[in-house]
Amino acid sequence: MSGRILVSAVGAVVEIDVSELESAASEAIRDAWRDALLGYDRDPDAVVRPRTDLDDAAMLSKLSTTVTLAALEHRQGELWMLHAAGLADERGHVVVLSARSGTGKTTASRHLARRFAYVSDETVGIDSQGGVVAYRKPLSLIVNAGYAKDQVPVSAAVAGPELPHALRLSKVVVLDRRDDAGPHARVEPLSLADAVMALAPQSSYLTAMRSPLRTIASLLDATGGAVRVTYREAESLDGVIDALMDAEPPNDPLVARPEARVDAATVSGAEDQDPDRWFRGPASDALDVGEGRLALLRRSQDGGKLELLDGIAPAIWRGAAGRTMEDISTGLIAEFGSPADTVDVEALVGTRIEELAELELLAAEPSWRITDAAAWVGDQERVTVMNVATGSQPLALDGSAAIIWTVLADGLALRQSALLEHCVAAFDIAVDSIRADVLALLDQLREAGVVTIR
User: Fold this and answer.
1) What mean pLDDT comes out for the span 266-279?
2) Which of 245, 266, 289 is the endpoint of a domain?
3) Which of 126, 183, 324, 355 is the most exposed place for a label (fewest CB within 10 A)?
4) Residue of 75, 370, 64, 68 whose CA lies nearest to 205
5) Is 354 within the bounds of a domain?
6) What three-state secondary structure class fits 44?
7) CA 234, CA 112: separation in Å to the nearest integer?
8) CB atoms within 10 A of CB 245
């Protein structure tokens, strides 16, 4: 018997190395994962090894998590990976059910999978055009309280129809199970702000995507917006999901929403020494969500942090383009008009700036990000970069310039000091020796429209 088992997980091929397991344990893995087995041989995208120090039930439970994490890591930046259940009809229309862990999502999906094809109960991968990637891992079911969850093959847990080959997103649903809900499921549309705030925390590697919030917004726009379904019993979901499944998936090419309007930076990267100037922090994405509010996503130690700004905070963030607090205050008065005489505008702005700086959304130094118009190929030895919006002559970056681009591409948006620190580590040289050259390159790339000061 082969010492490896290949499974498909969110479009990644993961090898489960069973060479150190007894045949019975290997067969248990193969059976649990039978609905995700790859039907042909190929090189894997990732390799995982089951724990050999656990009993079979605990080993299988740990393995499900290990395979999932390996697959998510491999697909990061390529898909919107939503912790959710997915169900498909015979046309390949997919309704995605997002919910927090432990709130009845598995129960609901098992009930609905009697009539609809099971896409996933763990992670649904969605590409920028609305294509859906299945992940038919074993279901994790509590059979004996106090023990590891049993890993039950999909085909043994549900008796639904066969999964269509091509899958397209029809609707995104935020499930809200409540014991005090009525006997009938209730459907209500979600505003873009509420949808993003509900779905972003349930997403994996969101900050690894280019334009993550705006990609989500374009997908929701194309499918009629997200909805919240409030219910008590899974049986009440039948008619609701039937109706949502009839929504037509997007057919026309989708383009991410334009980024939130911001003021252009008033200084170059070399002019960042004035402590009285404020810059926007290295947000991964910025999305206007309506009613004057702004959603900002930034990287954090635990992956990503989403903030929703309202009041004057969005205008302050937009205006922080190397400007002083006095300049920002003047801009606010020009936008909103003069306040009452009793309002100290600069004091109010100063307080908001301090709050935004505490959230790392403003900084006293520039941040650099790759623009939406940039496309590139290559590696740390040589990178070719082009502004696809202008169709201008591609830029060939070699040696240290290629490394600098790679550092910036890995982060998508970085504070200038962090970018310089990465370069110092890569070149093993003092920052004062490379600062001028790095900033000169960044300003050249900025002139070409492939990077910008955030």
Assistant:
1) 68
2) 245
3) 183
4) 75
5) yes
6) coil
7) 8
8) 19
Closest CA to 320 of 290, 361, 292: 361
Which amino acid would we find at residue 58? A
Residues 299 and 372 in one domain: no
- Mark whether 172 and 104 lie in a shared domain: yes
The label of the residue with tokens 């006095």 reads: 326
Residue-level pLDDT at 259: 80
**What is the side-by-side strand order in the sheet with 293-298?**
283-290, 293-298, 305-309
Q: How many distinct structural domains can be found in the chain?
A: 3
Among residues 226, 245, 264, which one ends one of the domains?
245
Residue 40 falls inside a structural domain? no
d(CA 7, CA 350): 55
Which amino acid is located at 201 in the chain?
Answer: P
Q: What is the pLDDT of residue 147?
A: 63
Phi, psi of 212 (to 5 degrees): -65, -50
Which domain covers residue 238, as residue numbers?
77-245
* Cα end-to-end span (Å), the chain: 55
Whole-Å CA distances, 338 to 254, 303, 329: 41, 40, 10
Is residue 96 in some structural domain? Answer: yes
**Average of per-residue pLDDT across 82-101:** 95
Evaluate whether residue 15 is within a structural domain.
no
Of 391, 355, 358, whose CA–CA distance to 373 is shortest? 391
Q: What does pTM read for this prediction?
A: 0.91
Q: Which two tokens stand for residue 64?
A: 């499900």
pLDDT band of residue 261 (cuts 50, 70, 90) is confident
User: Residues 282, 417: contact at Cβ < 8 Å?
Assistant: no
Give residue-wise pLDDT tens across range 156-208: 988 889 999 999 999 999 999 999 999 999 999 999 999 999 999 999 999 99
Instruction: Please say whether the dihedral angle defined by the alpha carbons of residues 53, 59, 65 and 67, taken in this order, is positive or negative.
Output: positive
CA distances from 17 to 44, 56, 63, 139, 210 (A): 11, 15, 11, 21, 33
> Residue type at 451?
V
Q: Give 362-381 pLDDT, tens digit per residue.
A: 999 999 999 889 999 988 78
Tens digits of per-residue pLDDT, 395-413?
A: 999 988 998 899 888 877 8
| pLDDT score for 256 | 84
